[in-house]
Amino acid sequence: MPHIPSILTHFSPELILVVGMLLVLTYDLWVRGREGLQANLAIITTVLALVATLVLWVTMPGSHPVFEACGPGAKAGTCRPGAFISDDFTHFFRVLGLLGTLLVLISGQTYMRGRTAFKGEFYALVLSAVLAMNLMAGANDLIVIALAIEFLSITSYILTAFLRHDGLSIEGGLKYFLYGSITSAAMLFGMSYLLGIGGSTSVPALAAIARNPELAQVQGYANIMLPALALVLAGIAFKIALVPFHQWSPDAYQAAPTPVTAFLSVGPKAAGFAVLIRLFVGSFSSLSASWLGTMGLLCLLSMVVGNVAALTQGNVKRMMAYSSIAQAGYMLLGVVSLGGKTLMGLDSVGAVLFFILTYVFTNLGAFAVIIAVEQATGSAELGAYRGLMRRSPLLAVSLVVFFLSLVGVPPLAGFVAKFAVFGAAVTGGQVPLAVVGVLTGVVSVVYYFGVVREMFFGASEEGQPGPIRVGMGTTFVVLVALLMTLVVGLWPEPFITLANNVAHSIAPALQAAGGH
Amino acid sequence: MVDNWGFIAVLTLVAFTVPLIGLALSWLLRPHRPGPIKQTTYECGLETIGDSWVQFKVQYYLYALIFVLFDVETVFLYPWAVAFLGLPLFALVEMVIFLGILAIGLIYAWRKGALEWV
Amino acid sequence: MSVPPGHFMALSAILFSIGVLGVLLRRNVIIVLMSVELMLNAVNLTWIAAGRALGDIDSHIFVFFSLTVAAAEVAVGLALVVAIYRSLGRTDVDDISMLNG
Asked: What is the pLDDT of residue B84?
């Protein structure tokens, strides 16, 4: 039976989010949807959850299961491990998700103000999405993984289609929904076969069975295990938007309200990688022979298709969609480099975590600029960026810094992250993929430079549009992101140590299993 | 004792015979006078004009959605109710929280006017 | 003699494949939605069959959750379809192509 104290302590960030979400909704009903404190309530809730997570992380290190079950549900007398687990790995992704959401909420507040009458619903949905991401970060049971992914998906569909009088927004939401519901059905199908093989929905129990050497002898086992893993991988790859499960992403990114796009480009990706790493690297590393190849293919396709397709985009949101597909490919490169070692003892999983950390701040910084430009010009087309350097030097220069970091230019955070991931790939036996990664990284310079050229050298036909007034929220987010991009780039040691510690908490067996 | 396959056989048999009986009876009892209008596909009332989509009132749709959601939630009440006597106090608290969240959902629908028939 | 679990698995695989075919071949969004529901129900059947064969309760609980999720998903899906019908007047997947590139 669930242990009440463990829920109230180790599950407290999630409980805070639930309460906050319900509060925002009831407050909105109370003020009848008028302008009010909805956004502030959401921000306060996120901050409280963040504080709770940090307190948990500092005061109670180690791994703490929540929702343990002993009784008729578990196999003969044994207790089932917690369906949710609160460890360093969970904390890491909780902090990233909550921080990312906080930045999105702050930079997107004024954007949403004039565009929708449903403020309470919007902020309640954003809080639900963070809740779902937190659940994904700590999910330790197939049921929780499936439910959390579905929860995040459904909230994302609604958020994408949120501007319901905008046909484009609805269309993006519908496409997202159609692709999403199909892949999630496929993922559930794969999970049912995992249950059929493992006899349990608990991830540690499944991992124990996967490690059993006798398993390979069972006749027909591979015929079931491989498709099952492939289907589960497809479901997660959809959330991360890896090629070929990416078709929804450019449409959804372009159509969604821009703060939602910013959120989608960061939240679901980070949470998806949390599940991917916990499930495949943390639990099924003994079966790596059966999934490394597939994942390597996804990685290759994502890096190539993402970077090449971004070249021809005239809409910056759409370009960022392809760019983030490519970035997800780089993250996956770290996942497939099992056993690779890179700078300062950072192992392959640590490199992925470090990459995600830098990506969250850099990408959200870039999106804060995109939101501000769209507010000023009403468009996210390339032409809207013409002469931005003259209209707002802060926005233009910071966007350049974020783009340079995404390309991986020293001394910015993105450089260290890419260096770490490529290093892991080279030492982890994925040299061809690393070469492709470097080459496609060079290609990415072209499309980022397209925007930069408009900002600095684009001559405006229709006179000289005046300077852009940048709001407090946007300035704050841009400065925080700039600071992080520079600090992580110039002084990466503490962050590398952090990523490594977190990585060791999830995959202690990885060092022993090195050299795959 | 009928085994599982027996059940399936019975089910299949019933599934096929019931509609067959209905069709056969109506074929035996009805007068047989065909005409051009009678040969058209049978539909209730008048032939629809234009797209049948426009006939739907949004209210139907909202009602149906809210009904489906609350209907499905009751699924969780059954196992809880069956095992109620064997459960600790915490299960009661958990169910109260669950129903509380559902109640907020209902209040939400109510306040948004989804329950009003216009 | 009872029905072996393999038969259930085969049936659900067939149902799932019919659902996939429906998704791939039909162009009306409503029918695509119905096909997705068929896929989800096929999955439920697998869970129940596997759970019964293994004597595992968890998988039966999973089906409860899965039903709820499917209901929520269909509610959102239908809402999107109605919204797109209002803005386009049609519900064919092929017509929904404002976003491209």
From this structure: 84
Flag whether A150 is in a domain: yes
Instruction: Phi first, then psi: give them for residue A63, nearest 5 degrees.
Output: -110, 125
**Euclidean distance between the first and the last CA atom of chain B, given in angstroms as a whole number:** 55
Prediction ipTM score? 0.92
Range of the domain at A180: 1-186+248-278
Q: What is the dihedral of CA A401, A407, A413, A416, to 10 degrees?
A: -150
Query: How many alpha carbons lie under 13 Å from residue A402 in its C-beta half-sphere?
Result: 28
Tokens 């910013």, residue located: A262
From B18's Cα to the closest Cα of chain A, the distance in A is 34
Q: What is the mean pLDDT of residues A42-52?
A: 95
| Chain C residues closer than 8 Å to A199 by CB | 54, 56
How far is residue A365's CA from residue A257's CA, in Å, rounded to a whole number?
A: 16
Alpha carbons C29 and A174: distance in angstroms, whole number: 9
Q: For residue A514, what pLDDT band results from cuts at 50, 70 and 90?
A: very low
Inter-chain touch C46–A172, beta carbons under 8 Å:
no
Domains of chain B with CATH codes: 49-118 (1.20.58.1610)
Nearest C-alpha of chain A: how many angstroms from C7?
Answer: 14
Question: Which of C62, C76, C84 is the closest to A157 by Cβ?
Answer: C76
Pairwise CA distance, residues A333 & A302, whole Å: 10
Among C3, C68, C85, select the one facing B72 at the smallest CB separation.
Answer: C68
Q: Are residues A418 and A384 in the same domain?
A: yes
Nearest to A307 by CA among A296, A297, A317, A321: A321
